[in-house]
Amino acid sequence: MRDNSSATTLILPAVLSRQPNGLLWGLVGVAAFSFTVPFTKVAVGGLSPLFIGSGRAVVAALLAGFALALTRQRLPSGAQWARLAVVAGGVVIGFPLLTSFALTTTPASHSAVVIALLPAATATAAVLRGHERPPMAFWLITGAGALAAIGFASMQSGGFGELHSADLLLLGAVVAAAVGYAEGGLLARELGAWQTVSWALLLALPLMVFLTMLSMAQQPPSATPVQWAAFAYLAVVSMFLGFFAWYRGLAIGPMAQVSQVQLIQPVLSICWAGFLLGEALTWTTVIGGLAVILCAGAAVRIRLSPAPAKQSP
User: Tens of pLDDT along 145-164?
Assistant: First the structure.
């Protein structure tokens, strides 16, 4: 009995510390990603969207390859490669390219209106893929948080307005990222957080190199030092280092719960757009931002039910 008691004592602290660590890592990832939209808006001022979306993945893949070789990571299995293709299609190819093209015709603050749907989309993908069982209260607060984020971002950008082609691109980016986040969060439990994004980047490297060369042939890159600095952030942080924290948070989970810290991302993105790009900020920033943060805090405090256990024959 003392052996069992000792085992219980050793395991209990790890279980209790699991959720806060996941949320903390998720917050670090969201903080890193919150600069993506405004810095993409800066970069598209001198670089083509195709070059930004593909070139940043090439730079990140080179860093990933170096890290994997330096630490001598084992190759993923056959089934894991197929799942890595889903991650690559969502967060390496889909989201960067779609947002880059969208931001050529829409302000950074307006883009945050549509991207505010990402937490709800990620939670839905996590439930479908990870078999998590959030209670009804979680979905109600998640919906309220999404509406608050959209309303906040809409007031900042002058209204959602009519649906344009850029909005369709951003909606596609939201779906792509949500699927990539959910699958990547599950894979991170098997491969590790930074290993997952690194293998996904390498898997997409041939295509992204081709697209980068194509974009350079169509429009040779010519940008200011500030625009190149924005591109460097997108490549090193948004495309690589940010996923270290984000996938670690999702892997610790629960994914549906950790994904709700993304609700504060449009608040941060619009604040950065105001400071860095000079886009208008009003007193509604404080009220709307507080409402979004309160919804995010309420969502992550709801206790989620674990996935149903399989019955043994």
Answer: 667 666 655 555 555 454 46
The DSSP secondary-structure symbol of 264 reads: G
Start-to-end CA span in the chain (Å)? 29
**C-alpha–C-alpha distance, residues 294 and 288, integer Å:** 10
* DSSP bridge pairs for 133: 305
Higher per-residue pLDDT: 101 or 284: 101
Give CA–CA dist 31/217, Å, rounded. 35
DSSP state for residue 307 in the 8-state scheme: P
Helices (H), the chain: 2-33, 36-43, 49-71, 78-87, 95-102, 108-115, 118-130, 136-157, 165-191, 193-218, 225-233, 242-252, 255-258, 265-277, 284-301
Contact 45, 38 (CB under 8 A): no
pLDDT tier, 5 (very low <50, low <70, confident <90, very high otherwise):
very low
Phi, psi of 305 (to 5 degrees): -80, 140
- Which two tokens mark 212? 């980068």
What does the mean pLDDT of the chain come to?
Answer: 77
3-class DSSP state for residue 133?
A: strand
53, two tokens: 């979306």
What's the angle, vertex CA 244, arms to CA 307 and CA 261, rounded to 5?
A: 55
- The residue length of the chain stands at 313
Q: Which two tokens stand for residue 265?
A: 């991302």
Contact 71, 247 (CB under 8 A): no
Helix (H) or strand (E) holding 107: none
Q: Which has the higher per-residue pLDDT, 158 or 262?
A: 262
C-alpha distances in Å from residue 94, one per residue of 20, 69, 86, 88: 30, 26, 10, 8
The C-alpha R_g of the chain, in whole angstroms, comes to: 20
